[in-house]
Design brief:
Helix content is about 55%, strand content about 10%. The chain is an alpha/beta fold. It starts with 6 loop residues before the first strand and ends with a helix. Bound molecules: adenosine-5'-diphosphate (ADP), shikimate-3-phosphate and magnesium ion.
Length: about 180
């Protein structure tokens, strides 16, 4: 287990990394950051506009730079974007610089939560279900590879998942510091 005092959330679009991450940070009394939001602030453009002007490769370069900078901090909760794990260098940074939680959810839940979403360019496909299933096939092994813990977020509501995750983390971190001491 990675005992570093950072919490990094990975997982697919609509898993709740941004919304649950913010609440978990409150429970843990740690500052919260969202990678996509930082990219938008630093670029001065929305994610859809970055994809439109620079394509996915341009977005991934910005995502990598931002992730490298943010994972260098100490004591933060960082929500990543669903595709951040695609880059092996990002996986290395996440795995070595913090405790990584895979927020796992079903394609069914993603479809329902993101039904009205217009801010995720990779969802702009004729068949969203097929797109999400294809992404899961490629990405799930990468979430698995990089994570220290899996949290299922399919059924419960945001506050319950956040509270449960925060208490699990407190237990885990407490255990690792007492074992190490
Ligand atoms: N466990 C959950 N139960 C119900 N709704 C959820 C849950 N997790 C996320 N949501 C909702 O799904 C949408 C996408 O969540 P978001 O945090 O943006 O996901 P991500 O950052 O992983 O893409 C939001 O409207 C959020 O309120
Ligand atoms: O899965 C992906 O490749 C992406 C997920 C998005 O973040 P969320 O996972 O927070 O929706 C955002 O980074 C971008 O649209 C690309
Ligand atoms: Mg998000």
């Amino acid at each position: 287990m990675n005992p570093a005092p950072n919490l990094f959330l990975v997982g697919p679009m609509g898993a709740g990394k941004t919304t649950i991450g913010r609440r978990v940070a409150e429970h843990l009394h740690l500052p919260f950051h969202d990678l996509d939001q930082i990219i938008e602030e630093e670029t001065g453009a929305t994610i859809p506009l970055i994809f439109e002007l620079e394509g996915e490769p341009g977005f991934r370069r910005r995502e990598h730079d931002c992730l490298a900078a943010m994972t260098g901090r100490q004591g933060i909760v960082l929500a990543t974007g669903g595709g951040a794990v695609l880059d092996p260098a990002n996986r290395q940074l996440l795995a070595t610089r913090g405790f990584v939680v895979w927020l796992e959810t079903s394609v069914e839940q993603q479809l329902s939560r993101l039904a009205r979403d217009k801010k995720r360019p990779l969802l702009a496909a004729p068949d969203r279900r097929e797109r999400l299933e294809q992404m899961a096939q490629v990405r799930n092994p990468l979430y698995q590879e990089v994570s220290d813990m899996i949290m299922h977020s399919s059924c419960d509501r945001v506050p319950q998942v956040a509270l449960e995750l925060a208490s699990q983390l407190e237990r885990q971190w407490h255990r690792s510091t007492t074992v190490a001491a």
